[in-house]
């Protein structure tokens, strides 16, 4: 049973988004980290670049696969989580405490279209 | 009857058919419909015995004309110690190919690891892959790497002084990937880097240059990396690796990618192949590096061992998102280069490079005294130089007369580029293998023709 946080929004590509003021934090869900297995590398996106919703923004490598991270809301990369550079396993340990990157100037409309916890839970049950 | 190329006897076949409960070969193929089965004999000529084939090939080989080669253009006649052939023909190496059941083949993995380490040392880069097919292939992989490393980049800047075949392969790459090439033109035989700033924009992924270039001339890349990096573009330099014993390495020019072909390090001419490409990069590009990569590790008991590593870069894991389709390497040719370098050492490599330089300059100096041919550009060169003739009649006569003396005088550049402007250019290559006598023979013949 995957852990889902009440206060976050989710994409069908298994990213979560949390808004704090003018910043949107983006990470991957418990379901995603569980499917990937032991994560060995996180490619961090370049700062200052604008990404659209649905655009491939980074890659997470596990011992099993290399998976694309699909940007869930349009915005500009403000910060990439450099803690993950040397310690990618932090995602396996607590995927909700460790974001991948932070967006500014993000699209509120894109955010509003994301699934809430209940809808994401229901979506997972269809998989 | 036992055929030399078919190991199974009738008895073997009988046993095998029995094991799967069949009585004849026809029964084995009974599931196939009549129209796809051969009803008649195969429409190729009758078989020949091994001896007949050997004679036929020998008679074709005898039609080759032997001569003293002053031919280069990317493929050079260097001295290869006999250790290279003796050791690389060990069956365990010859049959191993690229490692698929990788960690079973610790010896082959170690050989590849040593190859990678040597390439890093020669190029002053951080990490090298297990090899690529050839130098031109390495250039197209460099182009792919650049484009994959920068968002919204679709243009690769290339020097007009790249080897003509490398440029052709890059053009094919561009056509196939929908990317485009932007040519940086040359001036006086070397790439004109004063054009760089005006050609460079945000769509450019990087620049590929070559030294020694297609004319054999050495190029200088002072400040180039800085200009490119300012635009987040990458810098790739292609070199003859032997020349790096005496010219600045890609690492010293602060390049991001080092590429080239190891033909000059232990691979015989053999009609231009097989060859072996190499690629080395700065550590920041490690995960964008194409091809196989062998790493040093420890097993569960703390013993040293070799393993294929960073495989998530590769197509079999990254699938359609992989930026390279290379799934193999040029293992045997890379091994020959590794043995060659181990035999020579740094000192031997420097000696080969220095002698090639000295002998090429000796010949060039004396040829330049003769009427009707000039060393047109006043630029440094290493083991190959462009002689420009006053007219094509004299050039043809020169080549023919020297050929009559048993000398291959050089390669006409136009035979590679098919361009009118290159018709009077003869590229003359001189390696450490050319003796003083051979140089004098060349000069004496040249003096007779060009008086």
Automatic annotation (TrEMBL), chain A:
Cofactor(s) recorded in Swiss-Prot or TrEMBL: (R)-lipoate
Pfam families xref list: GCV_H
Gene Ontology biological process terms, A to Z: glycine decarboxylation via glycine cleavage system; protein lipoylation
Post-translational modification N6-lipoyllysine, affected residues: 64
Spans traversing the lipid bilayer: none
Keyword annotations: Lipoyl
Residue span, Lipoyl-binding domain: 23-104
Entry-linked Gene3D superfamilies: 2.40.50.100
Record note on cofactor: Binds 1 lipoyl cofactor covalently.
GO cellular component: cytosol; glycine cleavage complex
Family: Belongs to the GcvH family.
Entry function: The glycine cleavage system catalyzes the degradation of glycine. The H protein shuttles the methylamine group of glycine from the P protein to the T protein.
Subunit structure of this chain's protein: The glycine cleavage system is composed of four proteins: P, T, L and H.
Protein name as catalogued: Glycine cleavage system H protein
Lineage, uppermost ranks: Bacteria, Pseudomonadati, Spirochaetota, Spirochaetia, Spirochaetales
């Amino acid at each position: 049973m995957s852990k889902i946080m009440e206060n976050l929004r989710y994409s069908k590509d298994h990213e979560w988004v949390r808004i704090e003021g003018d910043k949107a934090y983006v990470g991957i869900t418990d379901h995603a980290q569980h499917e990937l297995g032991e994560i060995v590398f996180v490619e961090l996106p370049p700062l200052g670049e604008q990404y659209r919703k649905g655009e491939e923004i980074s890659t997470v490598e596990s011992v099993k696969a290399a998976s694309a991270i699909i940007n869930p809301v349009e915005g500009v990369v403000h910060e990439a989580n450099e803690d993950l550079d040397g310690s990618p396993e932090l995602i396996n340990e607590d995927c909700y405490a460790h974001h991948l990157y932070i967006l500014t100037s993000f699209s509120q409309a894109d955010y509003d279209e994301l699934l809430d916890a209940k809808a994401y839970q229901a979506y997972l049950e269809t998989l | 009857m036992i055929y030399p190329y078919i190991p199974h006897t009738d008895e073997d076949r009988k046993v095998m058919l029995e094991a799967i409960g069949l009585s004849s070969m026809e029964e084995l193929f009974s599931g196939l419909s009549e129209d796809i089965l051969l009803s008649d004999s195969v429409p190729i000529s009758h078989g020949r015995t091994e001896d007949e084939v050997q004679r036929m090939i020998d008679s074709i080989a005898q039609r080759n004309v032997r001569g003293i080669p002053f031919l280069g253009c990317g493929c050079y006649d260097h001295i290869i110690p006999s250790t290279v052939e003796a050791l690389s023909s060990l069956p365990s190496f010859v049959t191993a190919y690229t490692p698929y059941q990788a960690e079973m083949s610790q010896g082959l993995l170690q050989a590849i690891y040593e190859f990678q380490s040597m390439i890093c040392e020669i190029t002053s880069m951080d990490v090298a892959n297990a090899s690529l097919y050839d130098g031109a292939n390495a250039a197209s992989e460099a182009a792919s790497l650049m484009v994959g490393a920068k968002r919204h980049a679709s243009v690769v800047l290339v020097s007009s002084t790249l080897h003509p075949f490398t440029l052709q392969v890059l053009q094919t790459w561009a056509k196939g990937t929908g990317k485009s090439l932007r040519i940086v033109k040359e001036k006086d035989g070397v790439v004109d880097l004063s054009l760089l700033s005006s050609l460079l924009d945000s769509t450019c992924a990087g620049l590929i240059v070559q030294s020694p270039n297609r004319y054999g001339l050495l190029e200088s890349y002072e400040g180039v990396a800085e200009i490119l990096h300012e635009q987040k573009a990458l810098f790739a330099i292609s070199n003859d690796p032997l020349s790096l014993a005496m010219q600045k390495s890609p690492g010293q020019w602060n390049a991001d990618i080092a590429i080239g072909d190891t033909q000059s390090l232990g691979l015989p001419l053999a009609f231009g192949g097989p060859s072996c490409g190499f690629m080395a990069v700065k550590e920041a590009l490690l995960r964008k590096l194409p091809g196989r990569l062998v790493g040093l590790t420890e097993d569960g008991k703390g013993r040293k061992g070799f393993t294929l590593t960073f495989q998530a870069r590769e197509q079999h894991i990254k699938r359609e998102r992989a930026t390279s389709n290379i799934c193999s390497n040029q293992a045997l040719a890379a091994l020959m280069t590794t043995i060659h370098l181990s035999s020579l050492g740094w000192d031997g490599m420097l000696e080969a490079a220095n002698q090639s330089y000295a002998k090429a300059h000796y010949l060039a100096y004396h040829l330049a005294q003769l009427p009707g041919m000039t060393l047109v550009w006043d630029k440094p060169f290493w083991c190959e130089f462009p002689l420009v003739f006053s007219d094509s009649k004299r050039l043809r006569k020169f080549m023919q007369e020297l050929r009559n003396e048993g000398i291959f005088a050089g390669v006409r550049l136009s035979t590679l580029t098919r361009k009118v402007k290159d018709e009077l250019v003869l590229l003359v290559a001189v390696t450490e293998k050319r003796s003083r006598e051979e140089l004098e023979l060349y000069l004496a013949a040249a003096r007779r023709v060009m008086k």
